[in-house]
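re: ur question from earlier - yeah i can do the single chain one, its not a big deal. heres the input i used so u can compare w yours
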Amino acid sequence: MVEYEAKKQSPIVAYILLALFGILGAHNFYLGRRQQGVAQLVISGAVLATLVWLFLSFAGAEMGDFFGGFDAMVRRMFALYTISIIWGIGIFGWLMVNAIQIPKLTAEHNLRLYRRMFGE
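and the output i got, formated as tokens:
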């Protein structure tokens, strides 16, 4: 029983991970939900890489240096803001759903751990 108490997951730790590293899926990895954690990590990584690429594509250049001129810069800026807003709304919704589910997910994880350890 001492081993079970040492290995069981805490909802408080899950909430802390959600608050600090939620967009990376840290709380899902902590709760044993690897597929959801990987999904959040991959989606966030891809979107962040796209945003960085878009930002760097026009951040250091002057107006005349852009391929296609001013219109291309406006399209890139619009893409940057659009992707940022859509990703922000999506990840916020995903994290809010996870925040509501953390007590249930923690209990399910601890029950699976108990059954695995004690064979019930």
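The chain has a mean pLDDT of 85. not sure if urs matches, ping me
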